[in-house]
Amino acid sequence: MAEPQESDSSLLVVVLDVNASAWARSPLSLDKAVQQMVIFINAYLALNSENRLVVIGASHKECRYLFPSDPSSIPPMHDIQVYEQFRVVDVKVLSGVHEMIASEMDDEDQQSLISRALSMSLCHIHRVSESSISKIWSRILVLSAGQDSPHSYIPLMNSIFAAQKMSVLIDICKVYGPDSVFLQQAAEITGGNYLKVDTNNEASLLQTLMFTCLPDQYTRGILNAPGNELIDFRATCFCHKRVIDIGYVCSVCLSIFCQTAPVCSTCDTKFSFRLAKSDSSQSTDKHSPGSSAMSSLTIK
Fold first, then answer.
1. What do you get for the CA distance between the two ends of the chain, in Å?
2. Pairing state of beta strands 235-236 and 243-244?
3. 233-263 tens-digit pLDDT
4. 164: DSSP letter
5. For 8-22, 47-61, 258-272, which range has the lowest pLDDT when averaged over its residues?
6. Greatest CA separation found in the chain?
7. What global pTM score does this model have?
8. How far apart are CA 197 and CA 143, in angstroms?
9. How many CB atoms lie within 10 A of CB 262?
10. Hey, how many other C-beta atoms are within 10 angstroms of the C-beta on 159?
């Protein structure tokens, strides 16, 4: 596998969690967070003229491309003090976020579609990689303020393993709430960084982005990035969508369940249960008829 070089261009896909109900509980407002993210995006584009950028907004209703989009909707402005590319990005991202927030008329407390946004990111990265002549090192940055959604565990893990196969780093900036178990696994498996932002200081988000998420793959090999020491690798059962410590695994499709079932709900495989007794248990049964035997789950 080729090693990243200093002159290589990068593709950054930014996933913004614009769920208004999640940001309403955060000390850092969504407007200030987006403004700091725009400053970070401008710094990223200034590093290399060949750097590419994609911004995706994710709410509990939809996922939308905020940039790139139709440039004709931006009114022309001639100002020698403003770099035109920066202005286009700023206008499209800020206006796109405001439009998504305005479309959320209800106050439903639902989780954002982060897994769908990651799927869109990987599809775009694959399309750009296939059409590009030179090597492009891609990475994804997720700004999250919500909690884990157990119902999105399967598509999220599929996206994580796809990103690992494509050598795509996933950086996570968790702004508010408890640590996200699923996003921690995403950063650890793909080689990215999981960062918990101190929202008591309004400028901490920009500082975290500039010093940790701005370096590309080549620069990260030189720097000493913060490590992820405490990672929860527990899985979520497919039946009740709960995080479990011990469960049952279907040997056909590898679905995880918190309790035994006669039929796999994923692949419809029928299970057969049989009692397996060891020699010690058989000798014990002679003296204690009421002793229980060990049960094993096999697949037909």
1. 41
2. antiparallel
3. 777 787 877 778 888 888 887 788 888 888 8
4. H
5. 258-272
6. 94
7. 0.79
8. 10
9. 8
10. 25
